Amino acid sequence: MFSLLRAFAVLITLTTMNLSAAPVTSLYDLTVHSLDGKPVDLSKYKGHVVLVVNTASHCGFTPQYAGLEKLYTDYKDKGFVILGFPSNDFGGQEPGTPEEIATFCTSTYNVTFPMFEKVVTKGDGQSPVYQFLTTGFPAPTWNFCKYLVDTNGKVLQEFPSRVKPDDKQLTDAINAALKK
After folding, report:
1. 75, 98, 121, 137: which is deepest, by most CB within 10 A?
2. Is there a domain that residue 173 lies in?
3. Is the pTM of this model over 0.70?
């Protein structure tokens, strides 16, 4: 029964996909949905250095929200942006609705960087954003994995969850990307 359901889901996915669409060659080729459900064309960030982070509200790494917000505040006027993608892939640590996630982020950590709808970061149902990010780079192994993307939408580097937002390795990479 499970195999039949899975086959049916794959069939539905294949029939609803736009098979004539050009291959994704840049993060900026994609459209996603904000936490309030509105479509966002990521091309609006073209020309910016972007840090994509899979987030979760109930994780040991959740306090990184504070460091991410500081990083965003310190660098946003230099052509840098952080894009947060909540995910429930690891230990069910992001069970909230979009409204609950937004409230948590703003009331607990004063998050002002763009946040998007919950996504799947690995395996079956992987979102197009993470399909792109993980071409040539490892898929996230936990929450708060970071992908640094250049001004043309190409992934430069992946940083695992344990790399904090103020880690010199990360800030040096951001600074180098901003100078290009």
Report:
1. 121
2. yes
3. yes
